[in-house]
Amino acid sequence: MLGGRTHLLCGPKNKARPVDETGSTKHLRCCMSIIPLMWALWALLTTILLVLLIYRSNLTRYEEDQIFLEESSSNQNREQQELLKKINRITPAVRIVTVCTGVMTAAILGFYVWDAVKQFNM
């Protein structure tokens, strides 16, 4: 025990080993794997991405591709400008969350590939 505490080290096969002053180890129950945390983070990011995409699609549903405005229709012009501001404000968030979701997907796939390669090498 270092300072009155036993420290846990995660070893192969996800087994925790307490290390004391003498350096002896004992096998305990396995440590919590990181993969459930990765899946939870991926699910959270994917949910946020879907909400942002639905919100953006609702904003752009009534947007016109081309409008011909007269001087008397300044109200429509103002509405279109407000709509464009909202869309421009949400676009960076959509891009960031999309990249984060892609990175988490690659990390999860990479973890499974690494685990499969590790299993074949044993």
Describe the structure.
It is a single chain. This protein has 122 residues and is mainly alpha-helical. The chain has two domains: 1-32, no CATH class; 33-121. The chain has helices spanning 35-60, 74-121, and strands at residues 7-10, 16-19. The protein has a two-stranded antiparallel ribbon with strand order 1-2. A hairpin with a 5-residue loop joins β1 (7-10) and β2 (16-19). α1 (35-60) packs antiparallel against α2. Residues 24-31 have low confidence and may be disordered.
The strand order across the widest sheet is 1-2
What coarse outline follows from CA principal-axis ratios? rod-shaped
Which residues sit in consecutive blocks of at least 5 with pLDDT less than 50?
A: 24-31
Class by helix and strand content? Answer: mainly alpha
Q: What can be said about the biggest beta sheet?
A: 2 strands, antiparallel
Please summarize what this structure is.
The chain has helices at residues 35-60, 74-121; strands at 7-10, 16-19. The chain has 122 residues and is mostly helical. The two termini are 33 Å apart.
Describe this protein with a few key phrases.
single chain; 122 residues; mainly alpha; 2 domains; two-stranded antiparallel sheet
Could you outline the blueprint of secondary structure elements for this entry?
Blueprint: E1 7-10, E2 16-19, H1 35-60, H2 74-121
Antiparallel strand pairs: 1-2
Helix pairs in contact: 1-2
